[in-house]
């Protein structure tokens, strides 16, 4: 950890947007990390990472586990490099399915199957 912190201090500080982009890339690659580790790695406070995670949680299906042994992860099968429909986009398509002919309906349903994040489906069915 000390080496990471020293290395980061030598590099120019990242702006919030760039730091958040790198955080989500790291979580997607590692699948799990802690806020303390990310704070150390980026040379910022735990509170800064906490705020970054709050912002990122509005854009990505982050799973935040609190307490001892807690951390940040992404749902199994979700990768940032893949494209998914947002919940709002999914709702708009589902609302309009009845208005399209059967051929287009099958196409829209295949789009939903391919591009809806599994976590969104799980949340909708509970």
TrEMBL record:
Keywords from the named record: Transcription, Transcription regulation
Keyword Transcription in record: yes
UniProt-listed InterPro entries: DeoR_HTH (IPR001034), WH-like_DNA-bd_sf (IPR036388), WH_DNA-bd_sf (IPR036390)
Record-linked PROSITE patterns: HTH_DEOR_2 (PS51000)
Molecular function (Gene Ontology), one example: DNA-binding transcription factor activity
Protein name per its UniProtKB record: DeoR family transcriptional regulator
UniProt keyword Lipid biosynthesis present: no
Entry superkingdom: Bacteria
Gene3D superfamilies, alphabetized: Winged helix-like DNA-binding domain superfamily/Winged helix DNA-binding domain (1.10.10.10)
Source lineage: Bacteria, Bacillati, Bacillota, Clostridia, Eubacteriales
Organism (species): Ruthenibacterium lactatiformans
């Amino acid at each position: 950890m000390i080496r990471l912190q020293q290395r980061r201090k030598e590099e120019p500080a990242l702006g919030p947007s760039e730091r958040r982009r790198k955080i989500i890339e790291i979580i997607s690659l590692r699948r799990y990390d802690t806020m303390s580790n990310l704070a150390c790695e980026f040379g910022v406070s735990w509170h800064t990472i906490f705020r970054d995670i709050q912002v990122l949680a509005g854009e990505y299906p982050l799973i935040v586990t609190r307490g001892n042994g807690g951390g940040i992860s992404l749902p199994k099968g979700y990768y940032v490099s893949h494209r998914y429909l947002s919940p709002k986009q999914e709702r708009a398509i589902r609302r309009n399915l009845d208005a399209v002919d059967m051929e287009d309906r099958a196409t829209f349903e295949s789009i939903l199957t391919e591009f809806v994040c599994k976590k969104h489906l799980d949340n909708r069915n509970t």
